[in-house]
Design a protein that fits this description.
This protein is mainly alpha-helical. It has six helices and two strands. Helices cover 58% and strands 5% of the residues.
Length: 117
């Protein structure tokens, strides 16, 4: 949840919608997204009753849109299977750079496979 604001602020393209799992259910994240005109689809955690945006998600949750999250989950699963699920770095900066390199490497691998087949 700490990286959400950083990633949105530093993104060169703003999304219309973000789809996240229950771990990101925070009224501050919903408010941050709405201030930027981004619709956030995050299921409400069990027993959470406070917060204007949480109440909206609880009452008007779009399950059809939420299940498109499987595409991202499949991509993350592929990266973990190919390059490992753990990071050996201790420093958070090194961990992030390690993960970013894995994602770039996976994209290069995908490009080569698609281009040469």
């Amino acid at each position: 949840t700490r990286d959400v604001k950083y990633l949105i602020k530093n993104s060169c393209v703003l999304p219309y919608t973000t789809i996240m799992d229950k771990g990101y259910d925070d009224n501050n994240i919903h408010a941050f997204m709405r201030d930027r005109g981004i619709c956030s689809v995050i299921p409400v955690r069990k027993n959470c009753v406070r917060g204007q945006y949480r109440k909206e998600m609880r009452d008007y949750f779009d399950y059809g849109l939420y299940w498109q999250r499987n595409i991202a989950e499949t991509l993350i699963s592929c990266i973990k299977r190919r390059y490992g699920a753990s990071v050996s770095s201790r420093n958070i900066r090194s961990q992030r750079s390690d993960l970013y390199c894995r994602m770039i490497l996976y994209n290069v691998f995908l490009f080569i496979v698609v281009y040469f087949h």
